[in-house]
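User: quick one
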Amino acid sequence: MSSPEAAPTDFSIHVTFEMLSQARCLPIVRATVAELAETVGWSESETRCITMAVDEALANVIRHAYHGRTDALIQLHCRAGEDQLEIRIRDTGDAPDQSRICARELGCDRIGGLGTHIIRDVMDTVSYESRQDGNWLTATKRLRRKG
Amino acid sequence: MTILVRESGAAQVVDVEGDVDLGTSPDLRRTLFDLMGKTPKLAVNLRKVRYIDSSGIATLIEVLKSTQRLPVEFVLFGLSPAVQDAFRLTHVNRIFRIVETEEQALTPA
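Assistant: Done. Structure below.
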């Protein structure tokens, strides 16, 4: 008798985007991420924050990895399960300068540098890795269900 | 994103609607900087903003800092839930003058 297969979780979806490094792609991604987060069970406000974190990460790739180039490729993987969302973003531009991540002081009137704070504040885990196949940002957030 | 500029007394009121992001924030920046030398008060209505990212917030900070060097008062009013969330995440609430209504925005600080 064969061993029973692991029961599938109640909800699981994996969405992949391949987009050019263009700001006009961002509203499409935001709409999809918001739909995913809402479906998993995050509140309206949490959904907005998660969407913002993903959007900021993509905007950082466009601005800092590709320096505004509009013909480069960005991959985004969104994996939503019953109680967690995982985001992975890959680019082949310049690697992020780790010393500048969250280097800006909060609460001051300095222009710029807010994006990485938003990502870290919203997501539970955030990591940046530069590999042979590109730069990877991986971020996760767990849903804490009430009751 | 759509931007509507209107006069209210001596003030210029800027109604912003839609998404303020990497693609659209340069338009908002251009509008606000164009108005800066033409009015003693610049009031930005954010009630219909569906989304604002850090580039939009950076634009507002840049305008604020520029108005501080001029005899121009810069005030934000009617923050939508999306703007409130973004401001909370970025801790910028205390650097702006923020009020609820247009009437409050047009009252001298």
